[in-house]
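Chapter review: from sequence to fold.
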Amino acid sequence: MTPQSDEDEVWRQIVASFNETAGDDPADRPWPDRENVPDGQEPTPEPEESDEPRDETREEPSGDEGEDHDHDHYIPPPPPPLPKADLVTRVAWTALFGGPAYLLLAAMLKLPMDPWIVFTAVASFIGGFVALVVRMGDGPPNDSGWDDGAVI
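The token string follows.
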């Protein structure tokens, strides 16, 4: 047999078995008992494998207790405060958003837009963008010394 005829035979078998049902259907498997959860209770996730044995004798809280169940939820710490921006950065952000915002509002409210007003709004947008890009500081920190290793 040639390799081409072997491949043709494999394709014929695939086409012939196209409408056959699979022998191991996932729908035929029974539902595991550990997946059954009583109404009103959230399922507990399975812990990762560890050397410690699991304690499966814990008591389920009754519904009539007035306890707060938030003790088992993660509460993140408050975020650190935002850094204070200097005057140049605040002016650059204001120009970046203020120019297009003024043009949008003036167009929506049908305010007169003289050419110098349009030029000022576009120039403020471009100037704010350039100022923010120049002040980004992509380089290494100033206190890193002469040999700061690999800089990505």
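Two observations follow directly from the output. The longest helix spans residues 87-108. The CA atoms of residues 13 and 19 lie 11 Å apart.
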